[in-house]
Specification:
The chain has one domain. The chain contains 3 helices and 5 strands; from the N terminus they run ββββαααβ. It has helices spanning about 35-45, 50-60, 65-80, and strands spanning about 5-10, 10-15, 20-25, 30-35, 80-85. β2 (about 10-15) and β3 form a beta hairpin.
Length: about 90
């Protein structure tokens, strides 16, 4: 998952909240809570970098936390909140 080019799915809206953000998919009506501002920053930045690992680096995420981020990103991908980016 770390070397995939991902993006926030076009059918997903993020709403900032004090705890992080809510992600709502208008197509499948799923709602996901992003419970940490770092996760929100990474998700919003995915489209700006070549892959997830590059995004984590650009967002200054400590490599010791990458496993947790990879798990969260994989879960969002499985929920169709994130999608593959062409190219």
């Amino acid at each position: 998952m770390l070397h995939r080019a991902l993006r926030l799915d076009p059918q997903v809206a993020l709403r900032d909240e004090p705890f992080g953000a809510l992600a709502y998919h208008y197509g499948n009506r799923k709602l996901v809570f992003l419970r940490h501002p770092d996760v929100v920053e990474v998700v919003r930045s995915l489209d700006e970098h070549d892959c997830v690992a590059d995004t984590l680096t650009a967002c200054s995420i400590d490599e010791r936390r990458w496993d947790a981020f990879e798990t969260a990103i994989h879960s969002m991908y499985e929920s169709e909140m994130l999608s593959d980016r062409a190219g």
